[in-house]
Amino acid sequence: MSNRTNHTRRSSSDFPEDFLWGVATASYQVEGAVGEDGRGESIWDAFSRTPGRVRHGHTGNVSVDQYHRYPEDVRLMADLGVGAYRYSIAWPRIQPEGTGAINPRGLDYYKRLSDELHRQGIRSAATLYHWDLPQVLEDAGGWPHRDTAYRFRDYAAACFRELKDHVDMWITLNEPWCSAVLGYGVGEHAPGLRDRTRSWAAAHHLMLAHGLAVQAYRSELGTSGVHRKAPIGITHNLETPRPATQRPGDVEAADRAMDMRTRFFFDPLLGGPYPERHFAAYPKETPPPVHEGDMEVIAEPIDFLGLNFYWEPVIAADRDDPEGFRLVESHHKTTDMGWPVTPRGLYRHLQWVWKESGGRYPLYITENGCAMPDELTPSGLRCHDPRRVSYLREHFTAALDAIEDGVDLRGYFVWSLIDNFEWSYGYTKRFGLIYADYVDQRRVPKDSYYYLREVISGVEEL
Ligand code: FCB
């Protein structure tokens, strides 16, 4: 670290001048309107109505109804002062059948949303896949089935073609680890399967889908010109764990823990292979079905790397565990998800990614934030969330430290603009800067919203 001392108070104006502040959401988590304007069914519709999958049987049917209320949400973003909104495009709105004909009414929603953002001077940052696979494609085999990658390429190509005048920043996939492992390996996310072999096949096809989409982007938008000003990247939730002790066994365990959690998703973007050490050590585990040429497709150059960061795990060696390591408790305070608050972990994470990639791609934090048990004041007009304010302050400071120490971090998107459907937790976890009243759809900015506004305007001390 550079020679900062505790006495140097820095302010948010120390971030680079063109630093991009943003907020993030995802289609199924905020849009609602699942049956409108020809939207097809997604795996999350099917999963959330299956008893026992989502807490209290909650679904995204209505959520915060952003599909209808986006003008109000964009106004709130304008008042907040953000430079960009990261949302996701629901594939089943664009291609209700997963393939073929484009649904113009679905496309139109994202055009209207982007137009509204542009009117307020906010950049439109679209993620093409934040987990809502058309159910028909799942019925045909889902991500473990190679063909799904090519279907994604076609869908992505249609989005590039149709939305090129609307979108300012493209993200192919959000956290493919979650889609593959939580969706097909652990069963905690849609489609809810528990099969390791299928989950690594899914992971490979997601990575392939990413590379194919980047190729489609080049063929649709060319390699230069006005549309190339909209950069393209991918968002990962890599983990860079800290060893529980400096004993060689724990250090090695923490390194191994990165193989399938981090290196699998990271190395191939830079032209490397999937972690061979892992498959050599576990011969019973089926390696992903890689065809000739796939790894070159996955390594298609991109413009930036998006990182979602929530916490830094601590890993110890464990002989009784089939993989030889386990997650251990740490002393940190935790959020409402039970996730430890580890801002220095963000600093280490950014450093690791930056160094491992040899500085190849600029970085964006595409998600960071926390769930807290927020409540409105008795007047119903305010929501005091001091723990989120401290969480953000500590993580912003860590990000600034990383920038000052040489990491090319270009922007920071807080998760989330507004409370929303938190996947298998339903509406029980509140991540928003804005409190959502799910009964009357009222939006109440929390203290953290006002805090972020001061940070963005550059007046706030960190
Ligand atoms: C990330 C997801 C996002 C949200 C946050 C809390 O893994 O990308 O949709 O659920 O976690």
Report on the structure:
By secondary structure, this protein is of the alpha/beta class. The protein has one domain: Glycosidases (TIM Barrel). Strand 8 and strand 9 form a beta hairpin. Helix 3 packs parallel to helix 5. The longest helix is centred in the middle third of the chain and has 26 residues. Bound molecules: beta-D-fucopyranose. The site of beta-D-fucopyranose has 12 residues, from loops.
Encode the helix/strand succession as letters.
Answer: EHHHEHHEHHEHHEEHHHEEEHEHEEEH
CATH superfamily: Glycosidases
The general outline is globular
| Overall helicity | 25-40%
Describe the structure concisely.
The protein is an alpha/beta fold and 462 residues long. The chain contains 15 helices and 13 strands.
